[in-house]
Amino acid sequence: MQQDEKKWLEASRNGDSQAFSMLVNMYAKPIYNLCYRMLGNAQDAEDAAQEAFLRAYRSINRYDPDRKLITWLLSIAAHYCIDQQRRVKAPQVSLDETAPIELAERGAGPEKAYLQQETSDEVQHLLSQISPRDRAAIILYYWYDLSYQEIASQLKLTESALKTRLHRARRSLAKVWMENEEVPLFAQEVV
Amino acid sequence: MKSIDIGKDMLNPGEQAAWSKIEHSFSSVKPVKPRKGFATRWLFVEQKHAIAEQKRRELWLAVGNGTAILAILCVIAITLWPQFSLPGTVFAGALESLLNGLAFIVTSISLGLSLFRSFSLLVWLGVATAFFSLLAMWTALFSRTSVQVEN
Asked: Cα separations (Å) of A155 from A29, A87, A92?
């Protein structure tokens, strides 16, 4: 896998878009997931993920092979989503356009699938309540196995600034949760 | 799923309880995935962008060439202006030179268009500058020689 990645990277550097599309295929899920959690709807997430890969392909010669490719791609996607959010200003959560969650245990039944979708929507709603940069920090911390150092470098922050952001985001989310606690859905657990 | 290990003590008990529930929600959420064929769609988007980029370059090239041709025509007209009043044979010679020059430019443009993909815009601009400088020198030389022949 690592060998393939190197081969595709090398070919991409020489302008082979087919080779880069193999990398796109490899990293589509994590990049799309980040964009979805950042932007809140499937269509925007698709567009943002496509654009992030396009930007990565255009600047492939600036990629430092010492860094993990996924980290670099996530960084591009996160910055693109933050910029998009700044332009739009208002949160873009649309529960009508939510993406289907990955139901690994689809056989578990429609009830569980429904609950997972509901939880996903609620998490999305919560995330939309904090600033794009704080959201990016929370998403990268929770959904990706990245260290403080990696996230800080991606978001161009110091480690202490990142920790402050995470703490602030956590407090904001807790407040929103407490304000909405009477909504029964929040109290439900997905087994 | 990681848990934030900083500043927990800075939250009040209510916030801490709420945060624990949020963490639980986070951990129960599955990652979302794109529709099938994401990489194929990306290839299509990339090709569309590449075509748009190519068109943009060609437009710039056309605008640059148009401007350059106009500039050259101006230089030639200014340089040859005194000769327009000279006898017909000299004027015909000048006109022939002008037409030859234009033919040369048109040939160069078509050559430049075919070479454009191989060179960056900066390289191309350098070549164009050198070409126009040479053409201006040639025009000035031609003008001086014509005047000397007439004298």
From this structure: 20, 18, 21
